[in-house]
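Sat 14:20. Reprocessing the chain from the morning session after the first attempt stalled halfway. Input below, unchanged.
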Amino acid sequence: MQSRFGAPGLATRYLITQNNFNAWAESVKPRTRALTAFFLMLVAVACSAAIIVMAPRLARESALLWFGKHAEGVIKSADVIEVGKFKGGDPKYRLRLAYEFPAEDGTAHAGLTQRDDIRTPPGLKPGDAIGVYYSAATPTNSVADYNLRTDVYALLLFLPWIALFGILGPLFYLYRWRQWRRAPSTLGHTEHTSGA
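Finished this time. Tokens:
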């Protein structure tokens, strides 16, 4: 496939071309094609669920980090709970921080921040100071500055890859499969027309 600039097109250089897909589809059994499609659809559903769960948190916390007001708060409680194990066997913890902070107008507000997948429990305790980012319009919308930047930037890097490979990948397979079904190829055309 040539681009208008004369060089190989993006799909030819980096993606599976329709001819490549047709050759694969005609060389495998129908069951293999069906299982591949089923597996990719499961991946797409799982990735969509992950985005639905994590995207609102990313949007909220990144907005507070970049556009919110900063205040020095005080920790009211710091609960650390072991929730499982990492792949290497190290314990995995969940941290729940309850805090209070003064808004710009002098009013006091309370907040709660949860952090998951923590390897080493922090030595935070009631009475310790902690930074807080909050919305000037709605001070009750706040987040404690513990692993805030790390989590925000990790999600910014992670979610696009989930969308690209976990959702667009299966949709790309479906597109190639539909094109193959419609194309009057030799073995594939004979198989899926005779079986209809």
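Residues 130 and 156 are 24 Å apart (CA to CA).
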